[in-house]
Amino acid sequence: MKLLLFGDSLTFGYGVWKKDNIETLIKSAYPQWDIINKGVNGDTTREALERFEEDVLNNNPDVITFLFGSNDSAMGEGPYRTVYEYKLNMEKMTEMLLLKNKNAKIIYITPPPVDETVFMPWTYNDRLEPYCNACHNLAEKYNGILVDFNQYLTNLGGKNIAEYLQEDGCHLSEKGYLAFFHYLNMALQTLYKG
């Protein structure tokens, strides 16, 4: 089984040792799978669409995870993409994939919450919310699998969300990646047992 992890720095594993990122945690649990990490730091869905053919279609995955939205929702002229563009880009990528392989399984992951009490995050949780809602809609529209990581981590962290995030308040810590793997693994287990 070929699983392709597609996303931004959260998928890449920014700020943690390789042994602690999502790719390595999945590989440890499923050594028989072919796992490809195509997370790129700073990416929004616009850049993702530009590299989609090379990074995704050419690899022809059985299962793909989409994790975008943290940068798309960021303030400032650079990375900011409207919710409309985010959804449109995600729809284009989904349809390109299904056109090539109608049996591909797609896992849509909502971006995690941020710690608004620190200086760094370039987004806020209320700005992330419509992107999370778009993820819900995409999963429903394309009969994909929704992994609502935002809600899961919000519930898990409660008032102590900081321990799941790095000092910048937006990238996942080692503990954050363990929580991410635990929740994502529930979806992976329903797809492929054993």
Question: Would you mind describing this structure in some detail?
Answer:
This protein is of the alpha/beta class and 194 residues long. The chain has one domain: SGNH hydrolase (Rossmann fold). Helices cover 43% and strands 13% of the residues. It is built from eight helices and five strands. It has a five-stranded parallel β-sheet with strand order 2-1-3-4-5, with helices on both faces. Helix 6 links the parallel strand 4 and strand 5. It is globular.
What is the mean predicted local confidence, pLDDT? 94
What gyration radius follows from the Cα positions, in whole Å?
15 Å
- Could you state the CATH homologous superfamily? SGNH hydrolase
Total number of strands: 5
DSSP helix fraction? 40-55%
How are the elements arranged and paired?
Layout: E1 2-7, H1 9-12, H2 22-29, E2 34-39, H3 45-50, H4 52-55, E3 63-67, H5 83-100, E4 105-109, H6 125-141, E5 145-147, H7 149-157, H8 174-191
Parallel strand pairs: 1-2, 1-3, 3-4, 4-5
Features:
alpha/beta; single chain; Rossmann fold; 194 residues; 13% strand
Summarize the structure.
By secondary structure, this protein is α/β, with parallel strands linked by helices. It has helices at residues 9-12, 22-29, 45-50, 52-55, 83-100, 125-141, 149-157, 174-191; strands at residues 2-7, 34-39, 63-67, 105-109, 145-147.
